[in-house]
């Protein structure tokens, strides 16, 4: 199932996306998408609604340097254990919403990533049981103010600006995410071309590690890391990140 969050003529709702192209429809889900969804019977053409961020997490937990070649492109070693940092919930935006590039921050980079969406409250989940607590997967862009990341020494400010975590276009709930192609483009030019099979710390390990540190709530998001090829974005450009089996997340960039 492709779970989306939409703005429709009557308000905002979760929905299931069915079909493709001009025939795609969205079926409204009552209340929330966790567990067995209950449908209201309302439906609209996908073209008649606006896709929002597919989930509003209580927290976004990101994993740094989880692709060896990405670590190497910045002259860093791969950490022996997952390197965690947090992005505020206010960083989250949806498809086609603008990444607001703050003035005076120097270089701002895109980072295309596979995102895990948690489906239930969990703590201390063993890797062997990780799949049972995952609602699904979506596409993410871990936008980063690179100069601040370097000067501050910790990453909270560099990764924490409003709009610095686009998510979407929806959550795919039926997917083997162990070996998916991930591609990032800026204004149509290919910048990243990786595979999730190159993750240093794999998805089950990440769920075990993160849930050993903190309780994960329904809708919480784990960003799994980015392949090599990250680079700067400027106002007026557009970033598109595609993960096979999920879809494409596109966001314009605005300078503010």
Automatic annotation (TrEMBL):
This is Fumarylacetoacetate hydrolase family protein. The lineage of its organism: Bacteria, Bacillati, Actinomycetota, Actinomycetes, Pseudonocardiales. Residues 59-253 form the Fumarylacetoacetase-like C-terminal domain. Keywords: Hydrolase, Metal-binding. Pfam families: FAA_hydrolase, Rv2993c-like_N. It comes from the Bacteria. Residues 1-54 form the Rv2993c-like N-terminal domain. The keyword Metal-binding applies. The keyword Hydrolase applies. SUPFAM superfamilies: FAH. GO terms for molecular function: hydrolase activity.
């Amino acid at each position: 199932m492709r779970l989306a969050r939409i703005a429709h003529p009557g308000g905002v709702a979760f929905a299931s996306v069915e079909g493709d192209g001009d025939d795609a429809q969205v079926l409204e889900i009552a209340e929330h998408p966790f567990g067995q969804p209950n449908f209201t019977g309302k439906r609209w053409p996908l073209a008649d609604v606006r896709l929002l961020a597919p989930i509003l997490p209580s927290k976004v937990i990101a994993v740094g340097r989880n692709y060896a070649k990405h670590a190497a492109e910045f002259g860093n070693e791969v950490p022996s254990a997952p390197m965690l940092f947090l992005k505020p919930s206010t960083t989250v935006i949806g498809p086609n919403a603008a990444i607001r590039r703050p003035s005076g921050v120097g270089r701002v980079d895109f980072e295309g990533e596979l995102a895990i969406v948690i489906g239930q409250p969990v703590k201390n989940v063993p890797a062997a049981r990780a799949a049972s607590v995952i609602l699904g997967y979506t596409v993410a862009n871990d936008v980063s103010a690179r100069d601040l990341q370097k000067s501050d020494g910790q990453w909270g400010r560099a990764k924490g600006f409003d709009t610095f975590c686009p998510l979407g276009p929806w959550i795919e709930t039926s997917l083997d995410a162990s070996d998916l192609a991930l591609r990032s483009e800026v204004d149509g030019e290919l910048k990243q071309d990786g595979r999730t099979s190159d993750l240093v710390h794999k998805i089950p390990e990440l769920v075990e590690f993160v849930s050993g540190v903190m309780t994960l709530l329904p809708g919480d998001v784990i960003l799994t890391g980015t392949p090599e090829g990250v680079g700067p974005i400027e106002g007026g450009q557009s970033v598109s990140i595609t993960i096979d089996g999920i879809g494409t997340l596109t966001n314009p960039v605005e300078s503010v």
